[in-house]
Sequence to fold (219 residues):
Amino acid sequence: DMKVTQMPRYLIKRMGENVLLECGQDMSHETMYWYRQDPGLGLQLIYISYDVDSNSEGDIPKGYRVSRKKREHFSLILDSAKTNQTSVYFCAAPGDEQYFGPGTRLTVL
Amino acid sequence: QQKVQQSPESLIVPEGGMASLNCTSSDRNVDYFWWYRQHSGKSPKMLMSIFSNGEKEEGRFTVHLNKASLHTSLHIRDSQPSDSALYLCAAPSNTDKVVFGTGTRLQVSP
Fold:
């Protein structure tokens, strides 16, 4: 099975600070995803990456940007974080299913 | 935009009972689904997938698919407290995307 890692697992930031969430995968798969999960809203797709420097907006990209310079790594960046970006963020990569990382719980105060 | 609707939002069943969860897609091109299970504080993990019309059984879990009605259901027999979790239904969309429902939260009471 593919392994997807995420760092950090927990993060507390103040409004206006920059946030960097990191994701890694061990199968060199071309496609990777970033989701956020909020109670009652399910998993919402933020960005999808089809390969290095080939990224596409998902359903809720506003306030986020991504970077993919190596196939194994996919970063999610929040420039000037907002309180409504408090959420659990999951990175995922496809195989026979979507393989999810363990998640990052971000709190923006 | 494709939607995946799940019902009920929450469900309580007694230990040993049967849990039945439902899922429907709004996209007429969808012809297969995944079911994921997410325990509290953990990430979603695929439970079962179904690609053909009819029924698929794995242990205590049975999934049904009706492609004509774009409907799938998950049934858990002899429910155990360890089955308590959020169950997410997912369907493929275009351009390698996957659309998830908002989930059914199952609680199995001892």
